[in-house]
Amino acid sequence: MAAKKAARTTASTGKAMKARQSDGATNAATTRSKAATGKRTQASKFVKTVTRNAQTQKVDKPTKASALDAAAQVLGESGQPMNCKEMIETMAAEGYWKSPAGKTPRATLYSALAREINAKGKDSRFKKAERGKFTLA
Fold first, then answer.
1. Residue 117's Cα: distance from chain center in Å?
2. E strands within the chain?
3. Residue 100 — very low, low, confident or very high, per pLDDT cuts 50/70/90?
4. Do residues 83 and 75 touch, judged by C-beta distance below 8 A?
5. Are 93 and 120 in the same domain?
6. First to last CA, the chain
């Protein structure tokens, strides 16, 4: 008896699923036809607003030096190999770059330097001088 009830329940949910799927296809077709006729959908209004706001923000906001740019500047001024801890301290003292509340800025800088060296190879701004120390290429 219980098996018959389970079979009936499964069959009825299968029919409901097919009905929902066909309704979704109809809604998608309606959305496409509205877009084809030139009427704006909510999504297109949103995208245009976000794009317009993003362009305005880019113009108003001054650009900030990245940690890699600041590291290149510090290494260029010092003229000798430095480890990441020394670079972070010098960047903060000179006001070139300050960690935005990160707990391990030297690890982040080390990772960024290693990524640039691996990705750009000979075109990289940095090279490893010795273990844990970097210099300008």
1. 21
2. 82-83, 126-130, 133-136
3. confident
4. no
5. yes
6. 81
Label residue 106 exposed, middle or buried (CB < 10 Å: 0-12, 13-18, 19+).
middle
Q: Is the per-residue pLDDT at 114 higher than 90? A: yes
- pLDDT tens digits along 22-57: 555 555 555 555 555 555 555 555 555 555 555 555
Output b/e per residue, 17-41; b: 16+ Cβ within 10 A.
Answer: eeeeeeeeeeeeeeeeeeeeeeeee
The residue segments making up the domain with residue 46 are 2-60
3-state SS class at 133? strand
To the nearest whole number, what is the mean pLDDT of the chain?
Answer: 75
Position 45 scores a pLDDT of: 53
Name 135's bridge partners. Answer: 127
pTM attached to this predicted model: 0.54
- Which tokens belong to 17? 């699923």
Q: Are residue 91 and residue 117 in the same domain, yes or no?
A: yes
pLDDT above 70: residue 103: yes
